[in-house]
From TrEMBL:
GO MF annotation, one: oxidoreductase activity, acting on paired donors, with incorporation or reduction of molecular oxygen
Binding site for heme: C396
Family that this chain belongs to: Belongs to the cytochrome P450 family.
Record keywords: Heme, Iron, Metal-binding, Monooxygenase, Oxidoreductase
Source organism (scientific name): Conexibacter woesei (strain DSM 14684 / CCUG 47730 / CIP 108061 / JCM 11494 / NBRC 100937 / ID131577)
UniProt name for this protein: Cytochrome P450
CDD domains reported in the protein's UniProt record: CYP110-like
Cofactor: heme
Length: 448
């Protein structure tokens, strides 16, 4: 098994205490996190108005971070040289769940090597072959919704996108193992959110809140299932494996540049990464989509009457603009850099605030208005004005698949006879690294 490819941990440079940081809120770091959790988009817009660009944020466990939002500066942050701009360092709270081989937590050469292994399975039409399956799963899901009783669509979308991951990424055929994962993965996702969002605080067991312990028990139970699946898959004859199109089968066949296959630990970490990065994000985008479509009947009507590709695609783009599921991406610089007019010392964090970029009046006029037409035909959105999937060598590896999945499922759900159970606007909250609908979007299905 290959071990030579794995990164020795990149040291975090000490942060220069004497640096005169750009202005920012003076609240203690924990209160800054609490404020963002309650109102992530509003807080970012207010801070930008008050302090300008960049402003400095403080988050517990991190060195101060500069927040950028104009397309040209955001571009510099996300496309900065990978040996200076480290996403893995910025993502390090995710290591507890994703592990040290995860694409999200690695940097430099080792990151590029893992990315080379993971890219081919996500390429081209391969995953589009799953279109019929995704459509079928979406139809079955919509048919199972109760008639006349309100239900939270967030939970239903989580279940739906988990089914997609179990088929497309894991390719699991053993029904009892699938059932175990259906039961064990959602509570693990829940626990990981606390550990990631609250960082070092969640790592202490605070009285009855045994967050860390609960998290570890859940993670270990899921790990046991993943290792069992990897062991079983390794026993499948190579010819049979090559005929399968799920991502795990392709990764088992893949080799590093030195010809060695991926080890069990690497496979486990990448499977966990793909579940964590691909399941809740897509489910949340679908949940926001239902909320936005049902509040904008003209858009929904146009999608229903004429599900032509361009308009459905534009609608999905606008959904990801107004409710960017991942509202920011971070990098930590290990050498001094200059972003625009700002000299940034080694050790500082840089945040590309996707949420703020998408809500800047100078990038998207009337940013609060949901208008898919912004993306129809010749679009005047500047480069890096729309970046729900981040950018550079860290751009979301599942971006095309996620867009395909969103469009496929929304075409089905747009036909469903549902209405919002609550007319009041859905609150936008931040948990973990995602922007979620605070009430989970309650719907009522009507008699067809
Ligand atoms: C609407 C759905 C999704 C959104 C909004 C989203 C967004 C993102 C963002 C913002 C990043 C960070 C990019 C950066 O640092 O510049 C990312 C990375 C990543 N995403 Fe997604 N994602 C989605 C779906 C998926 C899916 C379906 C998968 C796979 C099944 C996936 C796998 C990954 C992986 C592995 C990375 C790490 C890439 C790297 O560091 O090289 N994502 N995603």
């Amino acid at each position: 098994m290959s071990t030579t490819t794995i990164d020795p941990t990149i040291a975090m440079p000490p942060f220069p205490a004497s640096w005169a940081m750009p202005p920012g809120p003076k609240l203690p770091p924990l209160l800054q996190v609490a404020q963002i959790a309650r109102d992530p988009l509003g807080t970012a817009v207010r801070m930008h108005r008050r302090y300008g660009e960049p402003f400095t944020m403080r988050v517990p466990g991190f060195s101060p971070s500069l927040v950028f939002s104009s397309p040209e500066l955001v571009k510099q942050v996300v496309t900065g040289k990978p040996n200076v701009f480290h996403a893995g360092l910025a993502n390090r709270p995710l290591k507890a769940v994703l592990g040290r081989w995860s694409l999200l937590t690695l940097d430099r050469g080792p990151h590029l090597q893992q990315r080379k292994l993971l890219l081919p399975p996500f390429h081209g039409e391969r995953l589009q072959a799953y279109g019929d399956l995704i459509r079928e799963l979406a139809e079955r899901e919509a048919a199972s919704w109760p008639v006349g009783t309100p239900f939270r669509v967030a939970e239903r979308m989580q279940a739906l996108t988990l089914e997609v991951i179990l088929d497309v990424v894991f390719g699991i055929t053993d029904e009892s193992r699938k059932d175990d994962l259906r039961r064990l993965l959602p509570p693990l996702v829940d626990s990981s959110r606390h550990v990631v969002f609250w960082g070092s605080i969640a790592n202490r067991n605070l009285g009855p809140f045994r967050l860390r312990e609960t998290f570890e028990t859940r993670r270990d139970a899921v790990d046991a299932l993943l290792y069992a699946e990897i062991a079983d898959r390794r026993r499948v004859p190579s010819g049979e494996l090559a005929a399968r199109s799920d991502i795990l089968s392709m990764l088992i066949e893949a080799t590093h540049e030195d010809g060695t296959p991926m080890g069990d630990g690497e496979l486990r970490d990448e499977l966990m990464t793909l579940v964590m990065a691909g399941h809740e994000t897509t489910a949340t985008a679908l949940t926001w989509a239902m909320d936005l479509l049902l509040r904008n009947p003209a858009v929904l009507g146009r999608m229903r009457a004429n599900p032509d590709d361009e308009y459905v695609r534009a609608t999905c783009q606008e959904i990801l603009r107004i409710r960017p599921v991942v509202p920011f991406v971070g990098r930590v610089v290990t050498e001094p850099v200059r972003i625009g007019a700002t000299e940034v010392p080694a050790g500082a964090g840089l945040i590309a605030s996707i949420g703020l970029t998408h809500h800047r009046e100078d990038v998207f006029p009337q940013p609060q208005v949901f208008r898919p037409e912004r993306f129809v035909g010749e679009s005047d959105v500047p480069s890096y004005g729309w970046l729900p999937f981040g950018g550079g060598v860290r751009r979301c590896i599942g971006a095309s698949f996620a867009q395909f999945e969103l469009e496929t499922i929304l075409r089905v759900l747009a036909q469903s006879p549902v209405r919002l159970a609550v007319r009041r606007p859905e609150p936008v909250r931040a948990t973990g690294v995602t922007l979620v609908p605070g009430r989970g979007v309650k719907l009522v299905r009507e008699m067809a």
